[in-house]
Specification:
FdhE-like fold, 2 domains, 8 strands
């Protein structure tokens, strides 16, 4: 007879063998995302009207993978990493980076690749040209606004492309820094490598992490373990419910918390082995709309789609 495991029993049965932190696979992180975006954007795959945007973001992700293979950023100094460790902070905190100027070269490379695509909409092309020609001080200012999540100041049209360049930067660093250099989830709910917020969580099915749930960093693609049936925002274990669209994809649900009234998507690879946190979260906007109507708020956004909120004047 099958037995349903209670919260935490999967982790308990694994003893101390749970991989607490998963570094991004720099050889496949963006190419896998691109493939998933294209799959989700196929006509009729999920029945929504943003297929064109998903294909644009797939092209962007492919350019990110190429840039990640080409660029290698300056690593943080050993003394800075040791200081971070001693203070219980992430080793490469995104908001405190003394950013290697190469990230702007990555941005130019990404914009140039997309500009060359014949089917890019004119309004998007204008944004790409503006970023490609942007003054370094303005690009750095926009990067700071984005990383600080100052929502009212974010250029929502340019943000996905700026975020994409910063993702290449963060993923490069995270993939080269030993997992044990990051603190053991020193601050609950934020990435132990760069201190950014997760975009979603995923229940993995690979041989090393079968059945374990990981939060996926929106910036550097590092993943870190969180016990299931736990709010990834406030850490509450009470009032957790799971919402999905009737007849929609079985691999994605929204984990909703009635304590803080927030939610994040959770993906189940046992239902779809190709499920990818950034891509599947982006492609499930219909679920976001239903949850907003129900009074829940996203705990954090998707780096590939920034929307001005009414209170921000957007």
């Amino acid at each position: 007879m099958l037995r349903i495991l209670e919260r935490g029993q999967i982790e308990s049965s694994a003893g101390g063998a749970i991989p607490r932190i998963r570094r991004p696979d720099r050889n496949a992180v963006f190419s896998a995302r691109a493939a998933r975006l294209r799959e989700l954007g196929e006509e009729g795959a999920i029945g929504h009207s943003i297929a064109g945007y998903l294909h644009l973001m797939a092209t962007l992700a492919e350019a990110q993978q190429a840039a990640l293979a080409h660029f290698e950023m300056r690593s943080p100094a050993d003394k800075d990493m040791e200081k971070a460790r001693s203070h219980g902070m992430p080793p490469v905190p995104a908001t405190d980076w003394a950013r290697d100027p190469q990230w702007r070269l990555v941005l130019g490379d990404l914009c140039g690749t997309l500009e060359a695509q014949p089917d890019v909409p004119d309004d998007v092309r204008e944004v790409l040209v503006r970023l490609h020609r942007g003054r370094p001080e303005e690009l750095e200012r926009q990067a700071r606004i984005l990383l600080d999540a100052r929502a009212g100041e974010i250029d929502v049209a340019a943000a996905p492309f700026l975020a994409a360049a910063l993702q290449v930067y963060g993923t490069d660093l995270a993939s080269r820094i030993a997992a044990d250099a990051s603190n053991e989830v020193a601050v609950p709910g934020v990435c132990p490598m760069c201190g950014s917020l997760p975009v979603a969580s995923v229940v993995r099915t690979d041989s090393h992490s079968d059945g374990f749930r990981y939060l996926h960093c929106a910036l550097c693609a590092t993943e870190w373990h969180l016990v299931r049936v736990t709010c990834s925002h406030c850490q509450s274990t009470r009032g957790i419910t799971y919402q999905s669209i009737v007849g929609g994809p079985e691999a994605i649900r929204a984990e909703c918390c009635d304590e803080c009234h927030t939610y994040r998507k959770i993906l189940y690879q046992e239902k779809d082995s190709h499920a990818e946190p950034v891509a599947d979260d982006l492609a499930s906007l219909a679920l976001d709309l239903l949850l907003a109507e129900a009074g829940y708020h996203r705990a954090s956004g998707n780096p590939l789609l920034w929307q001005a909120r009414p209170e921000d004047g957007g």
